[in-house]
Amino acid sequence: MKQLELVSRGARRKRATSLSLKFLPWLVALGLPLIVDSNASGNFAYCLVWAFGAIGLAAMWGYGGILSFGQTAFFGLSGYAYGIIALNFGDSWITSWGSLLAALVVSVAAATLIGYMIFYGRIKGVFIGIVTLSITLVLETFMSQTAGPQWAIGAAKLNGYNGMGGMPQLTIPWHGGPLTLENTSFYYFVLALLALVYWVTRKLLDGPFGLTLIAIRENPQRAEMLGVDIRRHQLLIFVFGSTLGGLSGVLYTIWGSYITPSTMGLTSAALPVIWVATAGRKSIGGAIIGTALLVWLSQNLAVYGSQYALILLGSILLIVVLLAPEGLLPYVITHLRRLATRPQSNAVPEPQTALKAGRGSKS
Amino acid sequence: MTRLLETRALTKRFGGANVINGIDFQIDTGEIRCVIGPNGAGKSTFFKLITGEHTPSDGSIHFLGRDMNRVLPHERIRMGMSIKFQIPGVFADLTVRQHLQLGLYRAKDVSSTSLDELLHRFMLEQEASVLACNLSHGKKQWLEIAMAVSLGPKLLFLDEPVAGMSVEETHATGELIKRLRDAGLTIMVVEHDMTFVKQIASRVSVLHGGRLFADGPLDEILGRDDVAEIYLGRKK
Fold it and tell me: What is the CA radius of gyration of chain A?
């Protein structure tokens, strides 16, 4: 009897730990602007902006087994698309939101085309990484040489390596004139969008689609013999994940009113992979937290020199690969849970916990 | 009884070698057909041609009266074929329950009753929440068969379903397969274990050197000296 009580107390404590781990980060994020000034809120918004692309990569890589280095290609495509459309069609609230949607459509179309060629062309494994990396580098090279007055689309000058600037920010209609989303208001907008994207992604990946993706990642041949159209599933998750990379690009362009070709460069292309690998590629929540923290850390280190952040990120990646290949956050959470549910000296351990624990973290 | 599957002059060449050589084969609804033959007879290749993993070099395959030559593997499964592979290929990151859900989703049958019934029928109730990679070999084989059945197929292929099983597990699997047949399923089995073949089969097809060497009722085929000679190496 006493043993049963101890087991159920352990299970309750485990549930409580899981719940607090689930909601605590959101509560902290909600309360953050209350303790920092408006400028700092704007900087935190910058950290969150990158998380959309990280969610997309975690969905593709962690669930579908598709390692894409192309998040930055879609980041740049949608970022530039937003700039070109918004600069040409004015800065009313309708055009700014319309430009955001149109820029996402550009990512959807590009991802569909590239994904179709990859998956229906039977490109697999590491070659997907090579193809997507090549695409982002080609885009960077192309955009870098667009200096000069001849490289303009309507009112939008591409400006080569220096990048495009002067894009309008998002506004919402308000009595007494439109309200611009900047600093704290932009932070809350990004946070709300992030919560929505997180919820949609979890719904998608926790259901039959996510289960099918895991099956494809684990054993494609076996999955096909369950009647799964592998290429269609891979294309769908690639388009979904890449479009989230595009969303990061649009929000980045809106946040800073500029975008440069270097956002599609080699260093930039490696960063989402490092964030997601560090956070744990099988955890969507982990990808958000890990990315926001690492971007924040990089931003603070950049004050002392831009190379310090890269050296640190490289070192973190090395440690993760060697010590916690499933990711740093899942590693920490597993150990925290183990600590929280550690049975007392005379308690009986829960049967088959090790066997029942799914490897894919769903935090 | 209606004709479910038919192959006509089915041939598969790898390089210059005819691994499958002009096989004419038929199977009707409600049968348990065992395909036997010595190693290298072409049994697994024959299976893979039918399920679409390999493309025929010549000849045709008809399932439910439709020519399968241009039908993709996953579409054949959706038409009503289902296969249990020779080597269990369970998904390491999924539990037993999730494995069966995968099949039930595809069969558009997501009721928990179907899931519980499958778990019960294949004696996997205790292991429902266990990661499939942690199952014993025998249970992995049952899970593989349960997955194939979860798709609600018309024709079930079982490639060596009792390989590596104990005598008790082998017998239980045989009874399970017979119950599936009684429930209306047509089953095609590749197997080496002759005790198991005798337990389940109504008809037997013998492959040898890529050809259909013999085909007929179990007792008649197993009683033939030429079959014994090629299969068991026994002299007349």
Answer: 22
Give dist(CA A3, CA A15) in Å, integer.
Answer: 18
Q: Tell me, what's the pLDDT at A176?
A: 78
* Res A350: pLDDT: 44
pTM, rounded to two decimals: 0.87
Residues 6+ apart with CB under 8 A from B210: B12, B18, B19, B20, B21, B23, B41, B42
Contact A208 B92 (CB under 8 A): no
Contact B83 A230 (CB under 8 A): no
Pair type for strands A156-157 and A258-259: unpaired
Q: In the structure encoding, which two tokens stand for residue A309, read together?
A: 């952040």
* Residue found by looking up tokens 């009113």 in the block: A257
| Residue ranges for chain A with pLDDT beneath 50 | 346-363
CA separation for the pair A82, A76 (Å, rounded): 10
| Residue of B53, B85, B91 lying closest to A215 (CB–CB) | B91
Query: Is the backbone of residue A148 left (phi > 0), alpha (psi -120 to 50) or beta?
Result: left
Beta strands in A209-350 (DSSP E): 258-259
Burial class (CB in 10 A: 0-12, 13-18, 19+), A301: middle
pLDDT the model gives residue A310? 83
Domain edges within chain B: 3-232
**B76 vs chain A: nearest CA distance in angstroms?**
8
Amino acid at A98: G
Task: Please give the mean pLDDT across all residues of chain A.
Answer: 87
Question: What is the three-state SS of chain B?
Answer: CCEEEEEEEEEEEECCEEEEEEEEEEEECCCEEEEECCCCCCHHHHHHHHHCCCCCCEEEEEECCEECCCCCHHHHHHHCEEEECCCCCCCCCCEHHHHHHHHHHHCCCCCHHHHHHHHHHCCCHHHCCCEHHHCCHHHHHHHHHHHHHHCCCCEEEEECCCCCCCHHHHHHHHHHHHHHHHCCCEEEEECCCHHHHHHHCCEEEEEECCEEEEEEEHHHHHCCHHHHHHHHCCCC
Q: Tell me the one-letter amino acid at A324.
A: A
Give me the average pLDDT of each 10-residue run along chain B (236 residues). Answer: 90 88 92 88 89 92 92 92 86 92 79 82 92 91 92 91 88 92 91 88 90 89 83 58
Strands (E), chain A: 152-153, 156-157, 164-165, 171-172, 179-180, 258-259
pLDDT given at position A3: 58
What CATH topology corresponds to B3-232?
Rossmann fold (3.40.50)
Answer yes or no: are the C-beta atoms of B155 and B9 closer than 8 Å.
Answer: no
> By CA distance, what is B152's nearest residue in A?
A226
Closest Cβ–Cβ partner in B53, B95, B151 for A226: B151
Query: How far is it, in rounded angstroms, from Cα A3 to Cα A275?
Result: 42
At A240 the three-state DSSP class reads: helix
Q: For chain A, which domains are there?
A: 37-350 (1.10.3470)
